Amino acid sequence: RAAAQGLAILCQKPLARSVAEAEALVDEIGDRVPFMVHENCRFRPHSRLIRRWLDEAGVGRPLQAQMSVLTSGLVPDARGELQALKRQPMLAALKQMLVKEILIHHIDTLRFLFGDLSLRSAAVGRLSDAVIGDDHALLSMTTADGAPVILQGNLHARGYPGEVFDWLEIFCEHGRILLERDRLTLQGKRSETVSLDLAANYAASYRDTIACFLDGLAAGRILENRPADNLGTLRIVDEAYRWRRPA
Predict the structure, then answer these.
(1) Which of 71, 89, 76, 237 is nearest to 153 (CA)?
(2) CA dihedral defined by 33, 38, 42, 43, rounded to 10 degrees?
(3) What is the pTM of this model?
(4) Is 90 exceeded by the pLDDT of residue 164?
(5) Contact present, 10 and 213 (Cβ < 8 Å)
(6) Rounded-to-integer distance, Cα 67 and Cα 54, Å
(7) For the chain: N or C, fewer Cβ within 10 A?
């Protein structure tokens, strides 16, 4: 309806409820109006810095990467509360929860960092009775030149904080990049460590996504997060659930 009115579109993720529906949407709208997906984790300042280091810091080609999203958010805390559901109660009712609602951001960020990814295998399941959908997953992917990229997530990880924090390690030909919660480290021909203000970076991800959309409107073309590209993220999400074993 927005496209029929000639309106520019900034669409929250996921682009549609299924890959088939998203593909039909992209085909129908095409280039009739400016159209961008609001997938904002790639716009966090530390995600942009990691990409700059990969491009400009002389670390060479990525050889292997692993990313973890581990939290005890579905383990009762001292008050008996589940921090993950206290923050987002709607998670409890999602049949496809962890991969489609949370890890979709990380898949998109990994695609931003490394280009197109292919899913080789996935393990997706549920540990907590507080949700009906998946709460843990491990995805094994490869880059276009065959470098392995592993993504694991678990909302029932005892011993971890109730909040969600990302961990990412990238081994390259001539160095290493390591994201540990609020610290980002470059090791290679030059070394650098950056302390991160995660709350500020979270807010910046929204600001910078919208700024990219507005810059695209001014330039007459969408600069990033085009729907046709976002289909690559949705296809990995869809394929991951096809590997899911019955609960």
Answers:
(1) 71
(2) 90
(3) 0.94
(4) no
(5) yes
(6) 16
(7) N
